Amino acid sequence: MSFFARPEYKSDTTQFIEQLRAQKPDLEERQREGRALLWDKAVDSEVWQEYRAGRVAQKPYVYQTNA
Q1: For residue 37, how many other CB atoms are within 10 A of its CB?
Q2: Which of 2, 4, 51, 66 has the highest CB neighbour count under 10 A?
Q3: Is the pLDDT of residue 22 over 70?
Q4: Distance CA 7, CA 47 (A)
Q5: Mind giving me the DSSP string for the chain?
Q6: Given this model, what pLDDT does residue 56 score?
Q7: What Å distances lie between residue 35 and 2, 15, 30, CA to CA?
């Protein structure tokens, strides 16, 4: 055993997460469902190509006025 090892130590954060998982065993599944609602979407590459082709280049010095 190493002189510096502290196997019985757990940070407050680790203890909180372990306690939360024990209280709510379906937590990870609910997180995956929430992620699927917002992030896991099918991307239509043809629509993205049209979107990128329709972009207009921004002019330099956009905050300068011609007064």
Answers
A1: 8
A2: 51
A3: yes
A4: 53
A5: --SS--TT---HHHHHHHHHHHH-TTHHHHHHHHHHHHT-----HHHHHHHHHT--PPPS-TT----
A6: 86
A7: 41, 24, 9
